[in-house]
């Protein structure tokens, strides 16, 4: 028998939480992203899907309503502005750790 993750089902509790933030029924003060945000294949983001949507689209939606969005680590923060996918998130500020 396939698990919910294998069939694209499951995670209803997580979906409810994401929808509450996305619809602004709950305030999202800080969105912290650690790790790679998949954009392939060919810019679709379909390498990592959650409830029939690329997970990066969930991140984009949440970043639009979050008061602060933080990218933690080298994979998610990509300081090279020319190649940064954070430009999709609207206003961004790139900071370097000291």
Number of discrete helical segments: 4
Computed structural class: alpha+beta
Helicity level, as a percent range?
A: 25-40%
Low-confidence stretches: 1-8, 79-84
Mean pLDDT over the residues: 75
- Ends distance: 49 Å
What is the percentage of strand-forming residues? 5-15%
Number of DSSP-assigned strands: 4
Please describe the biggest sheet, giving its number of strands, its sense, and whether it closes into a barrel. Answer: 2 strands, parallel
Question: Which sequence of strands runs across the widest sheet?
Answer: 1-4
SSE pattern, N- to C-terminal? HHEEEHEH
Could you characterize the architecture of this molecule?
The protein is globular, with a radius of gyration of 14 Å. The chain has a domain of 66 residues. Helices cover 31% and strands 14% of the residues. The protein has four helices and four strands, in the order ααβββαβα. With 98 residues, the chain is an alpha+beta fold. The strands form two sheets. Strands 1-4 form a two-stranded parallel ribbon. The chain has a two-stranded antiparallel ribbon with strand order 2-3. The relative contact order is 0.17.
